[in-house]
Amino acid sequence: MSADTVRRSIVLRRRPSGAPDRSDFDIIEDAVPSPGAHEVITRTIWLSIDPYMRGRLREQQTYAKAIEIGEVMTGETVGEVVASADPGFAVGDLAVGARGWQSHVLSKAAQLTKVVRPDPAKGAPPISTYLGVLGMPGATAYTGVTDILKPKAGETVVISAASGAVGSVAGQLARRAGARVVGVAGGPDKCLYVQDTLMFDDCVDHRSMDLRAELAASCPNGIDCYFENVGGAVQEAVFDLLNPFARVAMCGMVSQYNQDPFPPGPNLGFVVGKRVLIQGFIVSDKPGRIAEWRKLAAPWVADGSLEYREDTVEGLENAPDALGGILGGRNFGKLLVRVGPDPH
Ligand SMILES: NC(=O)c1ccc[n+]([C@@H]2O[C@H](COP(=O)([O-])OP(=O)(O)OC[C@H]3O[C@@H](n4cnc5c(N)ncnc54)[C@H](OP(=O)(O)O)[C@@H]3O)[C@@H](O)[C@H]2O)c1
Question: What is the pTM of this model?
Answer without folding.
Answer: 0.97
